[in-house]
Amino acid sequence: MQYLGFAIVISFLIALACGPFIIPALKRLKFGQNIREDGPQSHLSKAGTPTMGGIIMLIAILLTLIVLWPNDTYTLLVAVVATLGFGFIGFADDYIKVVKKRNLGLNAKQKLLGQIFISLIVAVMAMQDSHLKTNVYLPFVNTYWDMGILFVPFIIFFMVALTNSVNLTDGLDGLASGVMFIITATFGIIYYFAYKDTNSETYRTMLIFSGAVTGACLGFLRFNAYPAKVFMGDTGSLALGGALSVLAIMIGMEFFIPIMGFMFMMSTISDIIQVSYYKRTKKRVFKMAPLHHHFELCGIPETKIVIMYMLATLALCTVTLLIM
Description:
single chain; mainly alpha; 69% helix; two-stranded antiparallel sheet
């Protein structure tokens, strides 16, 4: 458990130390957030708030991994490729938005191709792990399913879906980072017991990685909680999506993500429902999608929505631990 504790504390302190330097730098570079005019009117006052703050979390994660440097460098490489790969796509998207002044950033095709490419690399690398191979754990059935040739396309779909779900959830101050640290901390507990039972260096590496991500999210929350001094941007949300994906993949827990990350899933599901229904009927199911914006337009305060999401995630992660 000391590995998890050290990783969380070190990453948390690094994130806290980086914020006061990076946020003013983003302001000087005029990397301010553009706010959609068709979104909630209360968000218009947030225009100009520095974005691309995900850099703070990435620095905290990477420096923590360097300080604690696990023995299993291959597993560490898989985790870093997933996190930095998706983070780079997000950075490119943010850069186009704030520097090139194109509000939508990368087009959908560019973003999707980049995500598929990184996911393919991670899937192939994960298959080489001696514990994992092509196995996926099935909840409730309490057994592993060897997916064989289906493993690669499954992982690609899983990573693309999850990273975009995290990205869609990043719409309120502290929402994505608040939900994320609860899930990654839960994975830390799971990896602790997996390492305790097997003494596997793979699990010890992922234990340290989960702590690094958890601490980075907690440190970032210091600056991202309402009222946010900085937004993580796609740089942060896609990187966190990649990190969460690899945490699930390296222990075969992909099918637990719909439970643990249910609030992330709801962002995507509500968005799909809204778009599909509107195309057919020209009417809306929700006042606005994703779902957290619907709650906001129903008059629920932003901070209360964030707390609701975090409490729901805490309950669902507790259920996951009980199942495990």
